[in-house]
Write a structure and sequence with these properties.
InterPro entries: Acyl_CoA_acyltransferase, GNAT_dom. This is GNAT family N-acetyltransferase. By secondary structure, this protein is an alpha+beta fold. It has one domain: Aminopeptidase (3-Layer(aba) Sandwich), CATH 3.40.630. It is about 35% helix and about 35% strand. The protein has a seven-stranded mixed β-sheet with strand order 1-2-3-4-5-7-6. Helix 1 packs across helix 3.
């Protein structure tokens, strides 16, 4: 599907399916990966993950806030991407992306982000996106810099993990900056 807006060069975005539970459950067992993408949560049972996936599958976007699965063009689930703090009045939103460890550094996160930005900037009229990146996540910092994001700030000692506090970097990209990148 070349003309499908939710498809990129390597991945496509789709709703989370109830049948995705097992891949997400296995990913929950990767504590270091969880630390890089979000936080390490309490253990969840298989039944709990099944219920979470079923709930996600039944969700509809609320005010442009959405969680989508990232799958390869061959149909393999490799992670997720979500938007939050979508503000239509100001035209701003935030997003987060998480790729399962075995799929890191294959260009999947970059492609998923580009698909999401294309939709929010070109279809929904948003004009600015912000990403919060943990300073210790050097791969994510480099990814956002490669994508043309500008580091707009650094919040000191915002993240506590592995027994210590870390900074959180704020990256931003405007629609004009995005348009210059896709030319």
């Amino acid at each position: 599907m070349q003309n499908y807006i939710w498809s990129g060069k390597k991945v496509r975005l789709r709703p989370v399916l109830a049948s995705d539970w097992e891949k997400f459950h296995l990913n929950d067992l990767d504590s270091e990966g969880a630390r890089h993408c979000d936080v390490i949560y309490f253990p969840r049972s298989e039944e709990g993950t099944k219920a979470w996936a079923a709930n996600q599958a039944g969700n509809v976007p609320v005010s442009d806030n959405v969680m989508l699965a990232i799958e390869t063009l061959d149909g393999e689930l490799v992670g997720s991407i979500s938007t939050s703090s979508c503000d239509r009045r100001h035209g701003t939103f935030k997003y987060g992306v998480a790729v399962f460890r075995e799929h890191w550094r294959k260009g999947y996160a970059s492609d998923a982000i580009k698909i999401l930005l294309r939709y929010y900037f070109e279809e929904l009229r948003y004009q600015k996106v912000t990403a919060h990146v943990y300073a210790f996540n050097e791969g994510s910092v480099a990814l956002h810099e490669r994508l043309g994001f500008v580091q707009e700030g650094r919040l000191r000692n915002m993240i506590f993990t592995k027994g210590q506090h870390f900074d959180e970097c704020l990256f931003g990209l405007t629609k004009g900056e995005y348009e210059n990148l896709v030319k």
